[in-house]
Amino acid sequence: MLFLLGYPLLGYCAPAAAKVVMANLRMNPGGPFNYKGPADPAPVGEQLGNGWSGEKEERIIFECPRQEYCITYAEIRPVKAALPGIKYTDGYNQYDVYESGVPGIGYVLGIRDPNANRFIPGNAPVTQTFPADGTNQSAPNIGYRGRIIFVISGSHLQTGTFTIPAQTVAYLHARGKGVDDQSLLSISAVTIKIAARGCEISSSKSFAIDLGDAPMNAFPAIGSRYGGKDLEIQLKCDTGTRLHAVMTDQSQPGNTSNILTLTPDSGASGVGIQFFYDNQGTPLSFGPDLSSTGVLNQWFIKEAIRDGESIRVPLTARYVRTGEVTPGSANGRASITFSYQ
């Protein structure tokens, strides 16, 4: 007689990751958005016009099978890197600003639970959206309300019709017990029409200023100035344009003093260079290379009262003593950025 003995096969089966994505979140800002006004209408980071935004809500984007509490963490990961030095604030939080592809216009992202009152900034590279800071929770599902706002990004607005194509702007990610899934936060195509008033530079855009040689005894004390070389920039402006400008130290862009830093290839020390506008006695202070309204150390030049009006910007450069003087070459690099307000 033949006996067949059966033995159970023992082994381990790892649980498969649960698929929890239920929906993507697509925001439709609407439009077309129309703008007519100065090329630099507001401080950097401020919203451009009322209604230049869009929101969309999905009550459930991630959901666990059988309503298990499987989600323990969620986050938003913007697709683009944030623009440096620019923030938007809603009165509670600061938001990173991202390039939209339209000159002078960026966007910010906000995200919140449909039952929450305030948006969380969708800041780069990643922002946690669940659980709330200081808590340790899990959830059977997660929904979101997304928001996009268009803001000033720091360069001149340009006249024309622009289309921001439909695109994914961030990834929504959920993790937990057997869960590791991703959804998309995207926007529909947006059309923006801009009629911006401003100016065109009608003179040279580049100047090489030779301040000549300065004798050592020309600087008896710190703050002593020597020499002077004039230059003039000319612009033609549209009616109503309020022309402003700011100078930037290209060797040290963060310099906000009134003394231009010498370039690294300079042999001299203890001296710097100052610029004076229209023979005024106070030297110009330096600021960031931005054209938006309200930039640090930006100064007002003139308002154009007719189309094509020629506006001149006379400047004078002088050496100034800053410390113990040693002889050698003294070179500097500066730029001037105009703002059309």
Automatic annotation (TrEMBL):
Pfam families: Fimbrial. GO terms for cellular component: pilus. SUPFAM superfamilies: Bacterial adhesins. Belongs to the fimbrial protein family. GO terms for biological process: cell adhesion involved in single-species biofilm formation. Residues 193-341 form the Fimbrial-type adhesion domain. Residues 1-18 form the signal peptide. The lineage of its organism: Bacteria, Pseudomonadati, Pseudomonadota, Gammaproteobacteria, Enterobacterales. It comes from Enterobacillus tribolii. It is found in: Fimbrium. Keywords: Fimbrium, Signal. This is Type 1 fimbria pilin. InterPro entries: Adhesion_dom_fimbrial (IPR000259), Adhesion_dom_fimbrial_sf (IPR036937), Adhesion_dom_sf (IPR008966), Bact_Fimbrial_Adh_Pro (IPR050263).
